């Protein structure tokens, strides 16, 4: 019974680790692309500011993964990345379709 509890704990920690590292990366990548599109600066400045902020957001995503009450909440950032990715990558998609 004790081994089962340790296996469950290890699985939960591994899931949170993946949520923080991989899910946080996906979320941060999408957020950086969206910020680069919507910040009211010229393209280079918006890209630089978004990139610098990405370090903060990635760190916060990792912290969030381990601070969340449940493993499901730790994975919440990954579906939130979809609308951000659409905002960030919509101009490139339109260029390829045209």
Key descriptive features of the protein:
single chain, 98 residues, mainly alpha, 0% strand, elongated
Bin the strand percentage: under 5%
**What's the number of helices?**
4
Cα radius of gyration in angstroms = 17 Å
C-alpha termini separation: 60 Å
General description of the model:
- Helices cover 89% and strands 0% of the residues.
- With 98 residues, it is mainly alpha-helical.
- Helix 1 runs parallel beside helix 4 (77-97).
- The longest helix is centred in the first third of the chain and has 37 residues, at 2-38.
Summarize the structure.
Helix content is 89%, strand content 0%.
List the helices and strands and how they pair.
Blueprint: H1 2-38, H2 43-67, H3 71-74, H4 77-97
Helix pairs in contact: 1-2, 1-4
């Amino acid at each position: 019974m004790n081994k089962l509890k340790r296996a469950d704990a290890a699985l939960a920690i591994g899931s949170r680790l993946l949520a923080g590292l991989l899910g946080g990366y996906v979320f941060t990548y999408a957020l950086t692309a969206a910020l680069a599109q919507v910040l009211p600066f010229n393209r280079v400045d918006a890209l630089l500011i978004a990139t610098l902020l990405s370090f903060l957001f990635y760190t916060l995503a990792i912290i969030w993964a381990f601070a969340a009450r449940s493993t499901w909440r730790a994975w919440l950032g990954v579906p939130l990345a979809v609308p951000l990715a659409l905002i960030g990558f919509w101009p490139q998609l339109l260029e390829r379709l045209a």
